[in-house]
């Protein structure tokens, strides 16, 4: 007796060719990410070892190559991010490194910002050379203690 999976088309998918449809299937099958025991290892035609996770549709078995980009993209998956794209459009999936660079423009973390409330002169805080020219004066919080 033949297994239903014997007649499936088999497709190896790299991150660059990942589509919203395949990503949605991956997130549905692996909602908490994939574990080592869910990774399939095999050799490709060039005799290179490939590690992939499997997701199946009614007519195709996809082996999606495992990568850090895939894990990050699955972790940050939001179906609404892909509403403007066709389900088979590989350009819809953004490289997480590019997305991180774009998010740097929207930096809300103030931990690395310079405290500009104590500057003695106007400087462009984006120009590191100007920071060397600042006059630093000690701040005396106990001004009342100086009264003789």
What class would the helix/strand composition place it in?
alpha+beta
Shape: globular
Oligomer kind: single chain
Outline the biggest β-sheet: 4 strands, mixed
Total E-strand runs: 4
The order of strands across the largest sheet is 1-4-3-2
Taking pLDDT < 50 over at least 5 consecutive residues as the criterion, the unreliable ranges are: 113-125, 127-137
In DSSP terms (H or I, runs of 4 or more residues), the helix count works out at 4
Question: What does this entry look like structurally?
Answer:
The chain has 148 residues and is an alpha+beta fold. The chain has helices at residues 20-29, 68-75, 96-104, 128-131; strands spanning 9-13, 40-43, 49-56, 60-65. A four-stranded mixed sheet has the order 1-4-3-2. It starts with 8 loop residues before the first strand and ends in a 17-residue tail after the last helix. This is DNA primase. Residues 80-148 are annotated as: Disordered. It comes from Confluentibacter flavum.
Outline of the structure:
With 148 residues, this protein is of the alpha+beta class. The chain has helices at 20-29, 68-75, 96-104, 128-131; strands at 9-13, 40-43, 49-56, 60-65.
């Amino acid at each position: 007796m033949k297994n239903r999976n014997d007649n499936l088309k088999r497709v190896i998918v790299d991150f660059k060719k990942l589509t919203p449809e395949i990503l949605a299937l991956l997130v549905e099958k692996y909602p908490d990410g994939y574990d080592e025991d869910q990774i399939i290892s095999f050799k490709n035609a060039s005799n290179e070892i490939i590690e992939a996770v499997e997701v199946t549709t009614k007519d195709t078995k996809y082996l999606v190559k495992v990568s850090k980009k895939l894990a990050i993209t699955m972790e940050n998956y939001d179906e609404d991010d892909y509403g403007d794209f066709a389900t088979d459009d590989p350009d819809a999936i953004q490289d997480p490194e590019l997305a991180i660079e774009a998010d740097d423009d929207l930096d809300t973390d103030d931990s690395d910002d310079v405290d500009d409330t104590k500057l003695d002169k106007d400087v462009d805080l984006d120009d590191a050379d100007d920071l060397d020219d600042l006059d630093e004066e000690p701040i005396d919080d106990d001004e009342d203690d100086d009264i003789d």
